[in-house]
Amino acid sequence: MSGEILLRIGIGLFAVAAPCAAIVSRRSVFVLLPVAALLMIIGSLLLPGAANLVLRNARAALMRPLVILTVVLLIWSGLSFVWTPFPALATERYLRTTGTVLITLAAIGCLPTRGKPIWHNMLPVGVLAAALATIAFVLLTQKPPQTEADVGDTLWRAVAGLVALVWPAMMTLATRGRIALAGLLWLCVAAAALLVGATIALTALLAGGAVFCAAYAASERVAKILGAAMAALLLSSPVLILAIDPLAARLDPEGPFGQLHVWAEIVRSEGLKLITGHGFDTAVRASTAGLLPAGAPRGMLFEIWYELGLMGIGVFAILMWCAFKSAAQMGRATGAFLMAGVATVLAVSIAGISISQLWWTTQLAGVALAFAVALRTQARETTRAPTLNQRPVLKI
User: Fold this and answer.
1) Rounded to an integer, what distance in angstroms lies between the CA atom of residue 166 and that of residue 193?
2) Is residue 257, in this structure, part of any structural domain at all?
């Protein structure tokens, strides 16, 4: 079997099969994404000139702040095993997470510089098929909307992945000037989120749309504002929680404000743990084991602080700053799609999804692969193929 065929099968698996299979199986993503990445790696390596391309991409990647900071964050997470109360369970989750990240980076690094025309259709078709299938399933089964507490629901997880995947899918359509189809795809995903009752996902999708509009008008300025705001929010979360605690303690103690009050009580009792954290993958397990108070919050802000402390949150804050800065450097419209995707993922993660869950990490790996493929497909729409050190050009 030729390398090109294997590469197409791999892209088809994560771009078409994975979003559709997620509607009926929560575990499908754990199988399809690693297999897709492996096929993409093997297929890419079988293409002519693959060795030189991989070496060139590897050298360029090692100089990129995003890659360096990701590796540093993985290293600090590994060092936290020294003080985690759940070393065996944390090690298993860490190895799976690290493996997912590394195989995704390898697949991205092996991708050919120029994308084939067939790549253009796979991701938009996959996202549209998954959105329409979700809508049809809800309407035909008259399934009632899920509550946000039920994040383990299969449809809820499928929609959470779709709202992130829709941005690279829209990018591939906009590359060829199909703006109306891109907008229709966004509306279909929004309708799916609305019918499922995934309020968090729908809100994140709307936030991503607002970021896209703002970034398309002023890419570099919006990148600076979002990067600085996100870094400030990450670093100052405990201080902000303590500042609003007097109000949170009086308002709705059983709801979100009650969770903020519990977080404030945790911050007051942390001491040096605010610097080191409690160790990788401890937030959910500590809550289950009764080591955290009832009503402890979920979501990215709390979990990174609780697990990795100031050291980990500091690295992650710089990583977010660099992510928005790098997106702005990719060009006006390309940067707008990238920033919208990042903003959507952050909104879902902050709003209540436990980011340590492997299904969400795997979904994010698929989104990274999708953006990489979308950037490669632009090569045939421009006069010069983009490399890791060049800015792809996207005209809208």
Assistant:
1) 12
2) no
